[in-house]
Amino acid sequence: MSKPVLEVLNGRAVNTPPVWMMRQAGRYLPEYQAVRTRAGSFLDLCFNPELAAEVTLQPIRRFGLDAAILFSDILVIPHALGQTVTFSAGEGPLLTPLADRAAIEGLRGTVDDAVLAPVYETIRRVKTELPPAVTFLGFCGAPWTVATYMIAGRGTASQAPARLFAYREPDAFAALIDILVENSITYLARQIEAGVDAVQLFDTWAGVLPPEEFARWCVEPTRRIVEGVRARHPGARIIGFPRGAGTQLAGFIDAVAVDAVSVDWSTDRAFVRQAIQPRVAVQGNLDPLALLAGGAALDRSVAAILRDFGGGRFIFNLGHGILPETPIAHVERMLARVRGG
Ligand code: CP3
């Protein structure tokens, strides 16, 4: 049986676009909240194969989405490199900030395999239960975005700490990026070996970088990861998500051999349709707030996206993760519209 998301990644346009949602396994689902409460900490949930597999499958069972995304987090890599990572309710991730070159040199050069082993076990478990038409996606954070959390120790509005660090100590910052590139290649290759059909690279904070820094810290490391993964798995299917890249998406796909780009809601759709979609598949780009609002605003937004992207290689998705307050009925309405209801 064919998998529509994989078909699009393989370069074919599909009549009714396949659909999934970034952060689809999460707090807007009561069944997720129930497992989350049982699991202990958020990282305990990420590293519990039975429960992580369960929450990976929940949105597939409820909505019949066309892709499942591994339940984990981009910050498991810093954790496996020896940095202290915790998630506190309401505050998001907290890490011990990397203050200087010495702190970067104090990290492990390679991840602790024992820490990540449960993630591969989660993949093997999900694989046995996933309906055959559902594409299974693995992921990791792109080095720039992961580094922003490692340097600042938390999420910040415009990633000033990491930008400043990269200006002041470019060599030390490059050493950190190198560690992340090498370990991300191995991590994604192992996810593929464990059974995912494709992988997505989340570069959530790419859009805060000026053009030269975008080239150096977003494009180049991502290019190296794609090349490294393909050296081990030549047919690997890879989705890039340099959020906020805007017209720099063109330069991104010139350099990085991704099969698709995920585009955020602020990106001009005419530009993407003309300059990007003829070259790679496009994924996106519903504003998560339009989904939260529902009603006519949601219907209009879905219709405009289908009109602009529906004629080519396209995977319907949000422009960023679904918000925890989103009513389930709005997700159902969005799916009905995308699927022609
Ligand atoms: O998409 C999925 O359903 C799969 C799982 C997934 C999570 N995080 C689970 C999660 C994925 C793909 C991610 C990616 C991720 N994690 C990114 C890149 C994409 C993005 O949304 O920008 C980033 C920057 C992170 C780091 C992170 N993890 C932050 C900033 C936070 C706190 C903010 C928030 O949304 O809560 C997390 C926590 C997190 N990761 C939760 C989930 C379901 C919520 C925590 C909880 O349930 O207690």
CATH architecture: Alpha-Beta Barrel
Which fold does the CATH topology refer to? TIM Barrel
Helix content: 40-55%
Structural class, please?
Answer: alpha/beta
Spatial shape: globular
Summarize the biggest pleated sheet: 7 strands, parallel
- Widest beta sheet: strand line-up: 1-4-5-6-7-8-9
CATH class label: Alpha Beta
Given as residue ranges, the uncertain stretches (5+ residues, pLDDT < 50) are none
What is the first-to-last residue Cα distance? 24 Å
Number of helices: 16
Number of domains: 1
Query: How much of the sequence is in beta strands?
Result: 5-15%
- Strand and helix order: HHHHEHEEHHEHHHEHEHEHEHHEH
Roughly how many Å is the radius of gyration? 19 Å
The distinct ligands, each listed once, are: coproporphyrinogen III
| Number of E strands | 9
Overall mean pLDDT score? 97
Question: How would you explain this protein's 3D organization?
Answer:
With 341 residues, the chain is of the alpha/beta class. Helix content is 52%, strand content 13%. The strands form 2 sheets. The chain has a 7-stranded parallel beta sheet. A two-stranded antiparallel sheet has the order 2-3. Helix 4 (49-63) packs parallel to helix 7, helix 7 runs parallel beside helix 10 and helix 8 (143-152) packs across helix 9 (160-168). The structure holds coproporphyrinogen III (CP3). Coproporphyrinogen III binds at residues 22-27, 36, 42, 69, 71-75, 87, 92-93, 139, 141, 145, 155, 202, 204, 321.
